[in-house]
Amino acid sequence: MPTEIADAIATVVGKATEAIRANEEGSRQGGDIEHVHQMRVATRRIRAYLKAARPVLDGDVVTTLREDLSALAATLGAVRDLDVMIDRMHREAAALGEPDTAALERLIGSLDTERDNDRLALVTVLDRPDYQDMLTELDSAAADPPVVDPWADLTDLAAAEWRRLARAKHKLDVKYGEHPPDDDLHELRIYGKRARYAAELLPKRTAISRFLATLADLQEVLGDHQDACVLEERLRAMVSGAADPDAALAAGRVIEGCRSRRRSARAEFPPAWARVESAGAKAFRE
């Protein structure tokens, strides 16, 4: 018998599975980096949906699917992270002007090789029978959601993810005040994604739509911060192992830009969080 939670799981899992299939060929071929991005997002969405609804789903089915999706997401992530980094570095190189543009482009070449290798690894994963088996299992979960408590309250499940996010933020405030470490901000972004995806299971009334919008804004702020951190760390590692003083100088200019973006993101973080907190309280009447 169809219920609210079964219908919600069927809809979101079915849509995300379609996205995996729709972006598979583009992910294999490369070219447009959005294919890998959308495929990775779809795998993460399904994992988050299954995690949020886990208390009312068949535990064995959820565990198997989440483990399979996690492995695929990791392989996609290796390619995606390099896609983002290479794209950013090309833009940074173009903005520097010669001779720094050419110097930075020399560094990018090594990343291109690494990405090619990671894409080959991705194709190997997509060629395995296990991948097709996973898609079949996802189709089954969408057609007949493994719900063991069909009358569970979706709002309670989404509210639980929101409370986890709020507790994580509170712990950061208590421990670090206004200056949480970079890694902790990245972890908070992950909690934010989970809360967002869980809320996507709910009917889109005004308060929920507002909550989703504020979470998306928070993710963007923290994502910009994380991208700048990762790029700086990678550039430092690259120039330390390359006997190219010109590339080191060019990288230094980009690193300064990374630090500026990190400062901007940290300045945007408190008001972004305040909007999430206000919207969450209204969405779940806390």
Describe this structure in a few short sentences.
This protein has 286 residues and is mainly α. The chain is 85% helix and 0% strand. It has two domains: 1-143, Alpha solenoid (CHAD domain); 153-286, CHAD domain.
Q: Keywords for this structure?
A:
9 helices, 286 residues, mainly alpha, CHAD domain
What does the model show?
The chain has 286 residues and is mostly helical. It folds into two domains: 143 residues, CHAD domain, CATH 1.40.20.10; 134 residues, CHAD domain (Alpha solenoid), CATH 1.40.20. Helix content is 85%, strand content 0%. It has nine helices and no strands. Helix 2 crosses helix 7, helix 6 packs antiparallel against helix 7 and helix 7 packs antiparallel against helix 8. The protein is flat, with a radius of gyration of 21 Å. The protein starts with a helix and ends with a helix. The mean pLDDT is 92.
Number of helices: 9
Q: How far apart are the termini? A: 32 Å
Number of strands: 0
Total number of distinct structural domains: 2
Could you say which structural class the secondary elements and strand pairing correspond to?
mainly alpha
Low-confidence stretches: none
The CATH architecture of the largest domain would be: Alpha solenoid
- The CATH H-level homologous superfamily of the largest domain: CHAD domain
From the spread of the alpha carbons, the general shape counts as flat
| Strand and helix order | HHHHHHHHH
State the CATH topology of the largest domain. CHAD domain
CATH class of the largest domain: Mainly Alpha
Q: What Rg do the Cα atoms give?
A: 21 Å
User: Which percent bin holds the helix content?
Assistant: over 70%
User: Overall mean pLDDT score?
Assistant: 92
User: Which sheet architecture does the biggest sheet show?
Assistant: none
| Percent of sequence in beta strands | under 5%
